[in-house]
Specification:
Layout: H1 8-31, H2 34-53, H3 61-71, H4 85-93, H5 101-113, H6 124-129, H7 135-155
Helix pairs in contact: 1-2, 1-7, 2-3, 2-5, 2-7, 3-5
Length: 167
């Protein structure tokens, strides 16, 4: 199911891009640029998922990301109240019904890039529940980096079963 891109040099450039997204995202978070840190980390996940599926991710990236996370057996795909109470509550507040981390991250990343609703006003739910508590961005960044770290390890052939804890 999962494939690898054509040439070695192209693959190296793509992996370099994923690593740049990871490092830049951490630097942004450290500098307090939390929204952009989430968006940059999510971009790295999208690039990596595109590599894993051997296709450019278009449209609903959350579904494609969840597909690869499921295939790689990456934990924390579903955001239940015992392990991820903040993320589960954020899903409920934003009316994301399936409680998948990839769907939540895609939704928030889309808000970061496109904050206006159709009215045009800033999306009120996101404004209240995400921007209203900047720790949400810290937690979402951690979740995105978790997916990026462990998916990259799987993509490169690592099959260990040790995972770090989420915030």
């Amino acid at each position: 199911m999962l494939a690898v891109s054509s040439s070695i040099s192209t693959l190296q450039n793509q992996i370099d891009t994923v690593l740049d997204c990871y490092a830049d995202s951490n630097a942004m978070r450290t500098a307090g640029v939390l929204r952009d840190a989430v968006a940059k980390s999510f971009a790295g996940v999208e690039v990596l998922v595109g590599l894993a599926l051997a296709q450019t991710i278009r449209g609903n990236s959350g579904e494609s990301i969840d597909k690869v996370l499921r295939c790689y057996k990456i934990p924390n795909r579903y955001l239940d109240g015992n392990e991820n109470p903040y993320a589960q509550k954020l899903c409920a507040d934003l009316k994301i019904t399936d409680n998948k981390g990839a769907m939540l991250l895609a939704d928030v990343r889309n808000y970061i890039i496109h904050p206006l609703d159709r009215n045009p006003v800033i999306k009120p739910g996101h404004l209240k529940y995400v921007d209203g508590d900047l720790m949400q961005y810290v937690r979402l960044h951690d979740l995105s980096q978790f997916y990026l770290e462990h998916s990259l390890l799987r993509f490169c052939g690592y099959t260990g079963v040790s995972y770090r804890s989420l915030l």
